[in-house]
Amino acid sequence: MCNHPDEEWYKVIDINLNGIYRTTKLCFPGMIERKWGRIINIASTSASIGAPLHAAYCTSKAAILGLTRCVALEGALYGVSCNSISPGWVETKLAEGMIGRLSQIEGRTATEYLEEIKESYPQKRIIQPQEIGAVAAFLCRDEALGITMQDITVSAGSLW
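Structure (tokenized):
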């Protein structure tokens, strides 16, 4: 935290939190007017657990949980649900880059680091992007209106 550059903090908060805020603020009135809407925010298991050297990321994702709850309450009477999905490690280019950087800091190979992550998960694997998409698609269904103000963890059984 002490060596966290201010510019990095502002950038991460702006992308992860303010981007969701601005998009929701723009779309929410139309959803209220139509009396139907589904808002699905992407948080992270890091919102609840935290991670050293990643204060901005963890803080931004924790704030998404709070924003999700507030929006869910505001939309509840109008057929608008708002939920978040909190993935653990997901196999993406972004995660690949992060694993590369973290493995360098710890003096290991990226392959070793990735294997350690997989071994720490009860299912011994990391999440695939389509698994997040499947949860989002379900939450968009009419039948899912009663699911609101929830954070759904998709993490192969891991807490982080």
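The first strand starts at residue 37 and ends at 42. Residues 6-88+127-152 form a domain with the Rossmann fold fold (CATH 3.40.50.720).
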